[in-house]
């Protein structure tokens, strides 16, 4: 959905709802700390925490029934590689083989956007690039989960796991929703402009930042030979960790901003996604930041949690 449209589509409402949920969660975490003995607060913390921020959480034994290993994070990216790879292949087939897309995604997109697709619609360069970048991002994160990251015995909630499984499926459909209401004209090459190039450049820079951060985190648990020495979490240092507690979360936000730029910044839907990612990653970063401040007495007090010099 573009800014020129007044009404919100179903997909817009979905992302707006998710952004609102995490905004409420972020504020509630900040405000309700004095009720840490309340069982409802304990349930809330159990739902929003995962990994190292959850290990020392005091909770009832029945809540542990819903724990799944955090190392299952790779499942999310495996699904994304397969699903968004399929959507990318279908779109490339539509562009270069001039074949119509299957009716099943078209019907879903009609419902999500509220706009029927026309057969004469021109392929959008922005859509193809975002699909490609999203797939590349998923491949990189899958490889990092399998071959770079060193996971401890940390856990996440079953609700978080199910949400993660469906997240990239919905995200892939959202890319096509933007194409569904797109109004680009001409050939793919004639559609190329500086927004695409700037978005691509930011995507590369943010991806490198995130990869560097993941490598530094992994090295906290490995020796010089690369062998795992410990599963305990040490104080992160080096790189952008000198500026913020969670540069990998900041990089994630930049990646989504870069995808929005590829859509020329005109897609209201993608700005809602950026808003969701902002609150989601801000909450996760704040939980990590609080842990570091409480665990490491020498942890720099001036260091921000998420965005350098800001948050």
Termini Cα gap:
30 Å
- Share of residues in strands: under 5%
Low-confidence stretches: none
3D shape? globular
Structural class given helices, strands, pairing? Answer: mainly alpha
Q: Kindly state the number of beta strands.
A: 2
Radius of gyration: 21 Å
Strand order of the largest sheet: 1-2
Give me the number of helical elements.
Answer: 11
Describe the largest sheet: 2 strands, antiparallel
Helix-strand string:
HHHEHHHEHHHHH
The overall pLDDT, averaged over residues, is 89
Which bin fits the share of residues in helices? Answer: 55-70%
EC number: 1.3.1.22, 1.3.1.94
Subcellular location: Endoplasmic reticulum membrane
GO biological process, one term: dolichol-linked oligosaccharide biosynthetic process
Enzyme class: oxidoreductase
Structure explained in plain terms:
The chain is mainly α. It contains eleven helices and two strands; from the N terminus they run αααβαααβααααα. It has helices spanning 10-31, 39-48, 52-55, 73-96, 103-113, 125-147, 158-180, 188-191, 194-219, 247-262, 268-295; strands at 67-69, 155-157. Strands 1-2 form a two-stranded antiparallel ribbon. The chain is globular and about 60 Å long. This is Polyprenal reductase.
List the topology elements.
Elements: H1 10-31, H2 39-48, H3 52-55, E1 67-69, H4 73-96, H5 103-113, H6 125-147, E2 155-157, H7 158-180, H8 188-191, H9 194-219, H10 247-262, H11 268-295
Antiparallel strand pairs: 1-2
Helix pairs in contact: 1-11, 4-6, 4-7, 5-7, 6-7, 6-9, 9-10, 10-11
Membrane topology: Multi-pass membrane protein
Domain 3-oxo-5-alpha-steroid 4-dehydrogenase C-terminal: 193-311
Subcellular location: Endoplasmic reticulum membrane
């Amino acid at each position: 959905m573009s800014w020129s449209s007044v009404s919100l589509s179903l997909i817009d409402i979905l992302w707006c709802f998710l952004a609102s949920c995490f905004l409420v969660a972020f504020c509630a975490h900040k405000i309700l700390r004095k009720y840490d003995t309340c069982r409802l607060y304990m349930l809330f913390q159990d739902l929003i925490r995962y990994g190292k921020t959850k290990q020392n959480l005091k909770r009832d034994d029945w809540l542990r029934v819903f724990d799944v290993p955090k190392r299952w994070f790779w499942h999310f990216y495996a699904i994304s590689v397969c699903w968004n790879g399929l959507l990318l292949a279908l779109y490339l087939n539509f562009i270069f083989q001039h074949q119509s897309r299957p009716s099943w995604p078209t019907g879903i997109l009609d419902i999500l956007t509220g706009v029927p697709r026309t057969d004469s619609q021109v392929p959008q360069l922005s859509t193809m690039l975002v699909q490609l970048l999203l797939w590349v991002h998923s491949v990189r994160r899958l490889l990092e989960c399998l071959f770079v990251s060193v996971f401890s015995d940390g856990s996440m909630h079953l609700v978080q796991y199910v949400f993660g499984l469906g997240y990239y499926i919905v995200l892939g459909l959202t890319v096509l929703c933007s194409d569904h209401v797109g109004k680009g004209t001409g050939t793919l090459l004639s559609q190329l402009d500086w927004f695409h190039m700037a978005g691509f450049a930011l995507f590369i820079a943010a991806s490198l930042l995130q990869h560097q951060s993941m490598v530094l985190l992994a090295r906290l648990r490995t020796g010089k030979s690369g062998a795992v020495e410990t599963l305990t979490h040490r104080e992160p240092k080096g790189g952008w960790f000198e500026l913020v507690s969670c540069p990998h979360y900041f990089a994630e936000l930049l990646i989504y901003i870069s995808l929005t730029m590829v859509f020329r910044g005109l897609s209201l839907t993608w700005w809602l996604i950026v808003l969701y990612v902002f609150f989601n990653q801000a909450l996760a970063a704040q939980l990590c930041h609080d842990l570091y401040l409480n665990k490491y007495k020498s942890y720099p007090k001036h260091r921000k949690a998420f965005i350098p010099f800001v948050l």
